[in-house]
Amino acid sequence: MTNAAAMYFHDEYNQSTEKSAAIASMFGFMNIFARGLGGYASDKCNINLGIRGRLFWQFFTLLIEGGAIVWFSFTKTLTMSILALAFTSLCVQFAEGSTFGIVPYVNRRYTGGVVGFVAAGGNVGGVIFAILFAQFGSKKSFLYMGISVICVSFISFFLKIKKDPSFHNADLIRVIIHNREANLCLPMVKDSS
């Protein structure tokens, strides 16, 4: 998305290469905090609803991300395009944090392999959409990308994660968090030696 966004601002709004790259770099900047927030929200959904909460958060973030990309494809001014890109980036990073919140539940024995597969999926999508951008241009390609993300978001409802009490027991997680918070509130004990 970052490379396509830089080309988009250069071609659509006649921005210099430097300005286009600076605007598009905002997409990566959001990664500093938004991916972690997406993962944190996934953790909170897990505490309240178990793995289904994580999967619902995944659906929600992908759905909003797709809508944001569609919005970005229809913007007509530089200012609106920058705002749409910023919002889209937030949504993308939230969804990525959500995705990596689900990864450990897929297969505990092969978590590294699952992470590798998930990360490679992003690269495959990048190649597919690079071909799309070469064929249809930016506006239409962003529209198709957004529609694709919206459609894919519904897969979240069909994911089945094998039950594992250590991962799925929301009550256990609540107890752990309660105990951790209780320990943080203990007064300091003076050493008598």
Automatic annotation (TrEMBL):
The chain crosses the membrane at residues 20-43, 55-74, 80-102, 114-136, 142-159. GO terms for cellular component: membrane. It is found in: Membrane. Gene3D superfamilies: MFS general substrate transporter like domains. GO terms for molecular function: nitrate transmembrane transporter activity. SUPFAM superfamilies: MFS general substrate transporter. The keyword Transmembrane applies. Keywords: Membrane, Transmembrane, Transmembrane helix. It is a multi-pass membrane protein. Signal peptide: none annotated. PANTHER family: HIGH-AFFINITY NITRATE TRANSPORTER 2.3. This is Major facilitator superfamily (MFS) profile domain-containing protein. It comes from Eucampia antarctica.
